[in-house]
Q: What sequence folds into this?
């Protein structure tokens, strides 16, 4: 699956589209979406996207914490 992720990344396929492609390759079963997300985001070819994703999540958590403190 690493080769697939490398190919998708080199062709500048977005993370979301890569997750959908990977999900289909996994067979689109009930757990395939979570597995596909993990495969794509853990791929060494997606280190920039992984960092951006983590920064977004951290920012959202901080924003929620501020909202909770204000209320």
A:
């Amino acid at each position: 699956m690493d080769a697939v992720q490398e190919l998708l990344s080199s062709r500048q396929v977005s993370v979301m589209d890569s997750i959908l492609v990977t999900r289909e390759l996994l067979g689109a079963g009930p757990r395939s979406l979570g597995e596909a997300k993990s495969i794509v985001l853990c791929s060494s070819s997606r280190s920039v996207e992984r960092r951006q994703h983590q920064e977004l999540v951290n920012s959202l958590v901080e924003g929620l914490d501020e909202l909770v403190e204000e209320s």
In short: The chain has one domain: 2-70. DSSP finds four helices and no strands in the chain.
